[in-house]
Amino acid sequence: MKGRLQHSRASKAFLASTADAPNCLNTCTILENISEGVVIIDSDKHIVSFNRGIEMITGCKKDEALGQFCFDVLRADICANNCPLDDIGQELITLEQRPAFLINHQGDKVPVSISLFPLPWGRGQDRYFAEVIRDLSEVESLRRHAARSYAPEDLVGQHPKMRKILTFLPDIAES
Questions:
Q1: Entry pTM
Q2: pLDDT score for 142
């Protein structure tokens, strides 16, 4: 419940800080309708915004994610030792397309690229950051397919004796 209490304060602070931002409504509409996952987090690493794209990537619903720590929801391999937010710190630089793997709610490992940049809203300790997460599952699948496109297991023969010989090729290759 503590996370939900912090979520309430963090969300109110975020909404208050974006109220003055130009075209905030248009920006929010765009974020909800792009395929990339966009997570907006505060400087304490609480999720204050979670779009549909990131719901699809993680399998986590927006209502479940809001107010939680980003590392608890995203479960990326870089969170523990190489957190992008820790890397930008007070310098407020942009990190682009850092490769990572997320563990979605089904327990599957999802290859992604993560970009992180500070948002112009908020001051002092009330800083906000947008994390743009691109699902690379399809790209990775195509890369794996291309890498094995001429592997011995792709050889096909019609004659039963030829098929029997072809089944031994992987064993012969290993020896």
A1: 0.67
A2: 86
Give phi and psi for 158, each to the nearest 5.
-95, -35
Q: Are 130 and 42 in contact (CB under 8 A)?
A: no
Which has more pLDDT, 18 or 117? 117
Which of the 8 DSSP states describes residue 131? E
Cβ atoms of 33 and 55 closer than 8 Å: no
Give the span between the Cα atoms of 45 and 116, in whole angstroms. 12
Question: 7-62, pLDDT tens digit by residue?
Answer: 445 555 555 555 555 555 556 677 777 889 999 998 889 999 999 999 999 999 99
User: How far apart, in whole angstroms, are the C-alpha atoms of residue 16 and residue 26?
Assistant: 16
Q: In what order do the strands lie in the sheet with 37-42?
A: 47-50, 37-42, 128-135, 109-118, 95-103
Q: Which residue has the tokens 């939900």?
A: 4
- What number of CA atoms fall less than 13 Å from residue 169's CA on the CB side? 13
Q: What's the helix, strand, coil split of the chain in %, to 5?
A: 45, 25, 30
Amino acid identity, residue 35? S
Look up tokens 């590392």; give the residue. 71
Check residue 1 and give its pLDDT: 40
